[in-house]
Model the fold of this input.
Amino acid sequence: MSKSIFYHAGCPVCVSAEQDLIHLIGTEKVEVVHLGEKSSRIEEAEKSGVKSVPALVTPNGNALHINFGASLADLKS
Amino acid sequence: MSKSIFYHAGCPVCVSAEQDLIHLIGTEKVEVVHLGEKSSRIEEAEKSGVKSVPALVTPNGNALHINFGASLADLKS
Done:
């Protein structure tokens, strides 16, 4: 994959981090996934190593956890 | 300021995150500061809101904490 994926859950810290980081990397290079709205993608995020949101999964497959908004476990409940 | 500043302390997780994130943002747009070697800049990092490394301070002044390597307090001791 050539795009990064930014997973978030719509919390204020996510939105702030999202805007800044997406701006830095370039909008066209980042797919933004709202796990609160698309819970079907939580499993995919977990497989990428995402443990909390907001998180950025890079094209290299590294999961970078940005600050700390919510754990994936909390999103499932 | 127009550059982001990436603070790290040379731990493996920092180096991995660093390479990926700097590559994504663009090498010329990020200043990399090794706080283990340049402890004189810890105060500056703290003023920017950095609480742990690795962290990226964006041109907008937002401090984004990437994963968790070490707290600034640990770097001082």
